[in-house]
Structure formats: structure tokens, C-alpha cells
Amino acid sequence: MDCKNAQTLIAGYLDQELDPVRSLEIEDHLHGCVACSQVYENHQVLSKGLRTGSIYFKAPTDLQKRIQRSMRQAAKAESPPRWLSWSWVRMAAPMAAAVIVLLALVPFLRGPSTEEMLTREVVSSHVRSLMANHLADVPSSDQHTVKPWFNGKVDFSPPVEDLANQGFPLVGGRLDYLDNRPVAALIYQRDKHVINVFIWPPTESSDPGIKRETRQGYHVFHWTRSGMTYWAVSDLEESQLQEFVQLLQNQSPATLSLP
Ligand SMILES: [Zn+2]
Question: What is the mean pLDDT of residues 162-189?
Fold first, then answer.
């Protein structure tokens, strides 16, 4: 065994990791080689020092503090912003989930729209007018009796048309209350079916197109014309009520004023 091989194996020999043949070869070489014996001795000292702790030096307090300070600064520079830390993510994730659920529920929590509320009110008023034996405050088929009757009762003059010739005779007029205000109710009839037409000037400008709904078996048509909002409601067959609505639209001043 030459010196190079011997010195490579010295650490393993010291830790008793070599097989018996190798160990004997090393021992032979160390007996006859001063240089390798010196290396062996150095290894022994180092190994003993590591085991006993005699080469362990306690760092001065000042050095400890400087190291800790620089480590803190390095950690601060490298760590992500506080709001991105895991503890925040753990808290934010359920909150985000809750917000998503709430947003999904908003359309249900918000309740019925103004139009839906008004549709219900209109149907209720229609049903009430049939139940209470109080269909008309002014029972008359004469539009020139019904129209002036509203003077002083509402702050607008409702257009009153007689559609008797078209099969929808006027029955009378009534004061009603809808959309938080007094409104004019005109009553028409087709066979045994009563049609209530509620008229008032709307607070907000609305789409003039005809909208139709069906609630509790009653058909409801509503539209805006000549600065008035109209709501017609009846249990009449929908196509007949639509015919009535069109007649009313054609009679209204907006059409009449056209050349
Ligand atoms: Zn040697």
C-alpha cells in the first residue's frame, strides 16, 4: 500500500469501517511511514475533539446578536407580504367562499322587483273589487260622467274611453290606491268578465312597450302612453284581453293626435 492509498483510507480505519485485510495493510503502512502516522495522529485529535466537544467554542453574545439580526433582516427581505402569508390565506379562503355564496343568493335575498310588487298589487286590487261588491264608485257607461267624477279625487285627468261598440262596454269608475298613490280605476266588461284598468302618471319614465304577466290565473297587461301608465287585469281569455288593450291603445290621445 502506498501513502496515497493509505491517507485516503485513514478516516475509514479510524472509524473502524474497513474490512480486516485492509485494516492490517493500513497498520503495516503506518508502522513504517512517518508522514502517514502524522496524518493518522491529526485525524485522531480531530475525531476526539469532535466527540468530546473540546473544540466547541461558544460564540460571544455580541456575535450571536449580530448573526440573529442579519438573519431577521434577510428573512424579512425574502418573505412574501404579510397579507399573502399562509395564515392569511387560511383565513381568507373561507371568507371568499362565503362572499361567493352570498353573491349567488343576492337575487333571492333582494326580494321581488318593483314591477313584480306592482303586478301583485294590481291583481289584489282587481280581486278585492270583485269581492267587496264595490266594483264602481261611479257606476256609469257614459265616459262623460265617469271622467269628470275623478276631478278633485286624483291630481290628473284619466283618459276614459267607451268601447261598447267594440264589445267592451264601460261599467264605471272607482278610486283605488296603487304604487303608494291614489289611482283611477276604470271598469269594463266582456260577457261576464270584468276588466279593471288602472291609470296614473308614473313617477319614473318607463318603457312604453306592452308587458304581460299572468298571476293567480289573472292576465295582466301594462304599458305607458301619453304620460300615463296603464295596467289592465282580468280573468278574460288572454287573446281577448290583448284585443281590448290594443283598442285602448288606439283610442288614447297619442294616436288620436297623429295626422
Ligand atoms: Zn505513507
Answer: 95
How many alpha carbons lie under 13 Å from residue 242 in its C-beta half-sphere? Answer: 8
How far apart are alpha carbons 52 and 41 in whole angstroms?
Answer: 16
User: 9 near 16, Cβ under 8 Å?
Assistant: no
Measured in Å, residue 30 CA sits from the centre of ligand 1 at: 7
Residue 44 CA to ligand 1 center (angstroms) comes to 16
The least confident of 32-41, 79-88, 134-143 is: 79-88
Whole-number Å distance, alpha carbon 198 to ligand 1 midpoint, is 119
Question: How many A from CA of 42 to the centre of ligand 1?
Answer: 14
**Average of per-residue pLDDT across 28-35:** 92
CATH number for 130: 3.30.200.100
In a shared domain, residues 124 and 45? no
Q: Name the DSSP letter for residue 19.
A: -
Q: Which amino acid is at 253?
A: P
Ligand 1 geometric centre to CA of 48 (Å): 22
